[in-house]
Amino acid sequence: MRLRDRDSPISQEGLIFRVYGYDHPEDSCFCDLEYAPEEVYTSGIQKSVRTLGNRRFFKFYFDEGLKFVHNHFPEYQVFHKHLREMLVGLREDQIIQVVRPDERLKEILISKEDPLIEELNQVLELVLEISSLDLGDFGVFGSIFHGFHSPKFSDIDLIVYGKRELKELREALKSLYSENLLSNEFDDWTVEMPPLHWNFSNYSKKEYGWHQKRKLIYATRMSKRLGRRVKIEFEPVRRWDEIRNEYEETLKIEKIGTIEATVKVISDEDSGFMPSVYSVEALRTDPNVAQGVERVVSYMEEFRLQLETGEIAQVIGRLEKVEMKNRCFNQITLSQGEGYFEQIIKLIN
Predict the structure, then answer these.
(1) Cβ–Cβ contacts within 10 Å for residue 146, how many?
(2) Is the pTM above the cut of 0.85?
(3) What is the rounded distance in angstroms from the CA atom of residue 201 to the CA atom of residue 198?
(4) How is residue 109 annotated by DSSP?
(5) How many CA atoms lie less than 13 Å away from 325 in the CB half-sphere?
(6) Most buried residue, 52, 76, 132, 204, by CB count within 10 Å?
(7) For residue 65, which of 78, 76, 54, 49 has the smallest C-alpha distance?
(8) What is the Cα–Cα distance from 109 to 52, expressed in whole angstroms?
C-alpha cells in the first residue's frame, strides 16, 4: 500500500483520517483521525464544525480522535509490533478512498468563481516566479483539501514536497517577505495573539513565537479580493524517493521513561517532516543512561523545524531504546498522549 504523510484515507462511515509519517506495516497505515460526520460524532466546540454541501463534519483536536477511535471504533487500530500496543490506523481493506494532497491541488485550481482558490493560486504564482519550483512540488491540506473552506474565514494550507524543495521555498519566502509581497506571520505577533490557550509547562508563549518566526513557513497576505488578511502555511512532506520505511527494519522499541537532556544538533536535514528527526550529540542527560542519545524524534507539529545544525537545545520527552536489524541506539521521542504539554524542544540561548 503506497501512502505517505498527509494522504487522507476515508473509512466506510465517512471518517476522515490523515496518514501519520512514513513508517507503516506493509498492508496498513498508522493515522490520526481528523474529522467525523455528524451521524457518528458531534462536538460542543463551535470551531470544530465543518460543512460540505448539506453535510456537517466535526474536527478532532489534540488526542480527541485517538480517544474516539479507542472508545467507538476500536477496529480502526493497528498493532505496532515494536511498541507492542494498538495505535490508530487502517488496514488496506478498511479504506474506501484515498485523497492525495498533490492530486487535490491540481483539481481545485480549475475551480471557478472561488476567491479563496484564486488567492491560493496567486500565492503559488509568487513563489514559482522567483524559484525553480513548479506546481508538481506542491499539495494542499486543511479545509481547502476537504472542500470545507469558506472564503470569509479559511486559511490557505499548502504542502511542499522534498528536502531540496523545502530549502528553496524558505529562501523564496524570505525574498517575498523582504519585498512585502507576503508577510511573515510572526513578524508582528505578540503573546496576546492566538493561540489564546497556552498549556505548555516548559515552553513559554514568547519562546514559541520566536521559534515560529524563524521557520519562515508561516505567512500572511492582505487580500483585496477577500477583504481580509489570509494566513498561509507551507507544510513539508517527503518526496516518494526520499521515503525510507523503518518499520520492517526495526525489531523492538523499548520505552524507558521520561528524560530531560541537553543536546547539540548534528544534523537538521530531516527536521521539517513528520516525524521531525534531529541527529544529536547528548551533552547532558540522565547519568543512568549508559548509551548516548543519537536522535530526537518529534511527532508534535509545534517542534517542526525547531532547531538548526550546530545549535544547543533542551529536550524533554520519552527515552526509548531502539533495536534495529543492524544496530541499537537510544532516542528521545515526543508524541501525543499523556504528558503532551510537558514535552519540549527549544533552543538554549
Answers:
(1) 20
(2) yes
(3) 9
(4) T
(5) 5
(6) 76
(7) 76
(8) 18
* 289/327 Cα distance (integer angstroms): 17
The conformation of residue 317, written as its DSSP 8-state character, comes to E
Residue type at 62 in one-letter notation: F
> Among 31, 61, 55, 63, which Cα is nearest to 43's?
61
**Quick check: 221 and 119 in contact, CB under 8 A?**
yes
How far apart CA 152 and CA 223 sit, in angstroms, is 11
Sequence-separated (6 or more) residues with CB below 8 Å from residue 84: none
Q: Which residues contact 82 (CB under 8 A, 6 or more apart)?
A: 247, 250, 251, 252, 253
Q: What's the rounded Cα separation, in Å, for the pair 38 and 237?
A: 30
State the amino acid at position 99 in one-letter form. Answer: V
Domains of the chain by range and CATH? 8-99 (no CATH), 101-240 (no CATH), 249-347 (2.40.50)
pLDDT digits (tens, 9 = 90+) for 164-212: 999 999 999 999 999 999 999 999 999 999 988 899 999 999 999 999 9
> What is the biggest distance separating any 2 CA atoms in the chain, rounded to whole angstroms?
63
For residue 308, give Cα distances in angstroms to 47, 207, 271, 303: 34, 16, 8, 12
Q: What angle do CA 191, 306, 133 make, to 5 degrees?
A: 110
Q: How far apart are CA 15 and CA 68, in angstroms?
A: 11
Name 47's Cβ contacts closer than 8 Å, sequence gap at least 6. 59
Mean pLDDT of 281-285: 92
**Tens digits of per-residue pLDDT, 53-84?**
889 999 998 889 999 999 999 999 999 999 99
DSSP assignments along 129-194, one per residue: HTSS--GGGEEE-HHHHHT---TTT--EEEEEESHHHHHHHHHHHHHHHHTTSSEETTSS--TTSS
Q: And the C-alpha cell for 35? A: 474529522
DSSP 8-state class, residue 92: G
- Asked whether the CA dihedral 72, 73, 75, 79 is positive or negative, the reply is negative
Residue 287 — very low, low, confident or very high, per pLDDT cuts 50/70/90?
confident
**Helix axis angle, 163-178 relative to 115-129, nearest 10°?**
100
Cell matching residue 110: 480549475
